[in-house]
Amino acid sequence: MTDTRARSDAWTAARGACAPAGPLRSLRAPFMAVWHRHHDLLGGASSLAGTTGVAAVLGFAYWALAARLFSQRAVGYGSATVSAMTLLGTIGMLGLGTVLIGELPRRSPRAGLLCAALLASGLGSLVLGLGFAVLAPHVSGRFRNISGTPGQAALFAAGVVLTGITLVFDQATIGLLRGGLQLSRNLAFAAVKLLALPAAAIFLGHQFGVGITLSWVVGTALSVVAVAIRLRFAGAPLLPSPDWGVLRGLGKTAVAHNWLNLAIVVPRSLIPVLVTVVVSPSANAAFYAAWTLSGFLYIVPTHLSTVLFAVASADPQAIARKLRFTLRLSALIGLPGMVILGLTGHLVLSLFGAGYARAATLPLMLLVVGYLPTVPKVQYIAVCRAAGRIPRAASVLTAAAIMEVTAAAAGGASGGLRGLSLALLGVFLVEGLVTTPAVLRAAIGHGRHRRAASPAPARASLSAPRVPGASARPRRAGRAGTALRPPAGSP
Description:
The protein has 18 helices and no strands. It is mainly alpha-helical.
């Protein structure tokens, strides 16, 4: 890390020597100063945000094309299927993705642990995918249109397995400081599913959105193949022996993180499924478009929160300064984004179709307003992770998830998409009021953050490419990422 910083400073100095004096240089100086103060936070967040941003743009194009190729009812079923696969794949991760963010930089070799985590998440996701395919049709008749036939069940289970594995892999690359791997995989996924969609529409027709599900699964599978080829040419072992002993030793940490991860992810993945069941598949198609568009606002604060946790793991005392910066940046980017999306939302939704714009414009406006109370909630997660208070955060977020799902079901049943969106906004406001005090205390330096107890190996160097299984350089003493470990007595 020191070598990288020295090279960065030397490069900046050389650029500064060649740069013309005048207004351009004076305008650039403040931005370079901010970058130097927060390069650890901005570097990781920009990689994640770049991945999410590009994938979101391609994802928007994907769903806009799906709206043109499939009926609104089929899009509703397809988006509900994708949400269900994402939800079950996230549960099937077993919390291992978050654990790897902190554990991989501290271990060498790493390939065995990564392989074991991928296999465990794949097995867990397979059990969940098959269980849903068998049981869900007995819960609601509409689920029969998602996994009611053997072919649909097999496709759904494969999608859940691939989702769980790729989510763990993507988070592992953060711990390895190999953000380029998850960027390339997500780009391949977004491009392939977009190209596969027209063919799926031609050969499978419109019924129940099976073509959408197939294009999604094919895109995920081929993105894994593309990354495997890249790693093979880089000399990384593709089939190392799994290190089950190390993985078992991380069981308690994984359970705590998994509990918190599920509390975060379940509402976002489950609510579109609820809309399909409680309101209608056509209503879910419109709502999912608004849900996706509003998600653009959350790219910056979400990824800043993720990287804030990683940075605070190495230096717990830096969290107050870094947190203040993330809050300022979330406001500087999010507030103009709210205005832009609020003014252009109806027009953008009309690209999907007149029915989408008519049904989802007001829900989109309400979801946009929900950005304000959601920012402290997102940063509250990073604060609690860094402080080792994972069970407390999991308890708060579990209560919030229950309120969100209950509000969505009750609001949708009584008032359709409008009632559902109003109910969700009310819950978001409550969540913001509950989490803001803890975030403000941490931002002004009054929070209790854990200090590293012992030296540990370093995080992978940014100066050279790293691959799973490669060794890391030694870290300076006292900078271990111990914040990932829950306090004694926690789950």
